[in-house]
Amino acid sequence: MFGLFKKKSKVEILQKKYQTLMNEWHQLSKINRKESDQKYAEAQRILSEIETLKNI
């Protein structure tokens, strides 16, 4: 209950967004290749941002 109001860190927020994008990418890979490639590229940008924040 005490963790209810805990603020998420920037890394946690980015990891959640990365996971969401990867799920969307996987779904789109079966339907629309161009859009799936765009989602994958965006996910990779977020992953590099996560790695940068972890190295600081």
UniProtKB/TrEMBL annotation:
Pfam families: DUF6435. It comes from the Bacteria. InterPro entries: DUF6435. This is Lacal_2735 family protein. It comes from Marinifilum caeruleilacunae.
